[in-house]
Amino acid sequence: AVFSKLAERLQETFKKLRNKGKLTEKDVEQALREVRLALLEADVNYKVVKDFIGKIKERAVGEEILKSLTPAQQVIKIVNDELTQLMGGTQSKINLVSKPPTVIMLVGLQGAGKTTTAAKLANLLRKQGRRPLMVGADVYRPAAIKQLQVLGEQTGIPVFSLGEKQNPVDISLAAVEYARQGGYDVVTIDTAGRLHINEELMNELVQIKEKVKPHEILLVVDAMTGQDAVNVAKTFHERLGLDGVILTKLDGDTRGGAALSVKAVTGCPIKFVGMGEKVDALEPFYPDRMASRILGMGDILTLIEKAQANIDQEKARQMEQKILQEKFTLEDFLEQLQQMKSLGPLEEIIGMIPGLAGAKQLKNLQFDERELVRIEAIIQSMTPEERRNPEIINSSRKRRIARGSGTTVQDVNRLLKQFFQTQKLMKQLGGMAGFGGRGKFKK
Ligand code: GDP
């Protein structure tokens, strides 16, 4: 998953810091050296890294962390803050105008995921109560319009097109007029790309911009292409003036450098990220959540939002409370595992759960369905009392549980270890939420 390598390295660095208790200047410097390397390895632009580390150093000195009671946490907090800033600080929404239709123009190179994203975005907006119209104006890539129509059928969102013979400006103008009359309040225009940036492409897009006057121009770039994506964004922004970037394929095995550099290099915020091929795999981009995900504090808010869309809301709320109040039990652990099944790829979900993100043991534990069945069996073989107070599970209880679940004592031990580790990390998370007064997890 995205950032997993970076997250792992940063978390290791901070773990070392935390274990030290009192820190010397040298400790901090060593940690920052590691942070620097980890970022470079994640393919973050080197100048961005340099500025980033510089800012952290400045603050680390300024805020006298070495004298503070919890120096390691202070360092982590500063890194968390700066990572958040680096990615834009706060969430950048799209600007929906008061006099509809809002016209959104999607631009980008071929293969970046523009057409798919046009449908995902329209789909997301419709979920928010809008009436979108999709426009097929990619007259260049063969079958792009057909592809949009298929996505339209799949989502039930209407598609406006005039075929591939018309020019994109005329198609777009006609579409906006059609939307106005038909009561559509958002229009997403899928423009043509090219394999590489060239004059023809830029001229075409500038034409559309001048004639159609879109309210939002969003660039779709492929996160897998790393710093190339950042350079593409820079060029497009210089020529077109972008309102935002949509980073696709963040579900893939990308190192994440683009996500961390785009804002700093271009000044353009990332507004959405593509997390899969399916039409619902588009998420608003939250710099603060992404930062805590990278630092292993988990992204409980996104998880809860997903849960709210997919599972019992009341249960999700209770879970959040339990985490905040440090009352997370084995029963909750089991329930969470069961609910995960309905939430999507396990690997992605695990990355969002505080503590689990960094739990090595869990990674080694081949997290497949069979394993889930085994964990379920073990927990179900416990008495309610044992589930609530796993501390009481002694050797004889372990043997009984193993027998009852058709597993071994080692399996039981392993599960308990994972659970205690999760619980401990959740406690730390509870502490995190309080320090610095930011109250990230307080609503
Ligand atoms: P376009 O040429 O820019 O219009 O690109 P397409 O929309 O046809 O997308 C190119 C390929 O990327 C398709 O196979 C999409 O399914 C895939 N794709 C787009 N967005 C994502 C994403 O967020 N994650 C993944 N894994 N694949 C994506």
From TrEMBL:
Entry keyword annotation includes Cytoplasm: yes
An MF annotation (GO) of this entry: 7S RNA binding
Pfam family, one: SRP_SPB
Location(s) in or outside the cell: Cytoplasm
Binding-site positions, GTP: 108-115, 190-194, 248-251
EC code(s) of this entry: 3.6.5.4
GO annotation, cellular component aspect: signal recognition particle
Coiled-coil stretches noted in the UniProt entry, renumbered to this chain: 1-34
Broad enzyme group: hydrolase
Keywords: Coiled coil, Cytoplasm, GTP-binding, Hydrolase, Nucleotide-binding, Ribonucleoprotein, RNA-binding, Signal recognition particle
Main location: cytoplasm
Catalytic activity: GTP + H2O = GDP + phosphate + H(+)
Domain SRP54-type proteins GTP-binding span(s) in chain numbering: 269-282
Superkingdom of the organism of origin: Bacteria
GO process terms (BP): SRP-dependent cotranslational protein targeting to membrane
Family: Belongs to the GTP-binding SRP family. SRP54 subfamily.
Functional description taken from the UniProt entry: Involved in targeting and insertion of nascent membrane proteins into the cytoplasmic membrane. Binds to the hydrophobic signal sequence of the ribosome-nascent chain (RNC) as it emerges from the ribosomes. The SRP-RNC complex is then targeted to the cytoplasmic membrane where it interacts with the SRP receptor FtsY.
Assembly and interaction partners: Part of the signal recognition particle protein translocation system, which is composed of SRP and FtsY.
Annotated domain remarks: Composed of three domains: the N-terminal N domain, which is responsible for interactions with the ribosome, the central G domain, which binds GTP, and the C-terminal M domain, which binds the RNA and the signal sequence of the RNC.
PANTHER family, per the entry: SIGNAL RECOGNITION PARTICLE 54K PROTEIN SRP54, SIGNAL RECOGNITION PARTICLE SUBUNIT SRP54
Protein name: Signal recognition particle protein
Species annotation: Calderihabitans maritimus
Upper classification of the organism: Bacteria, Bacillati, Bacillota, Clostridia, Neomoorellales
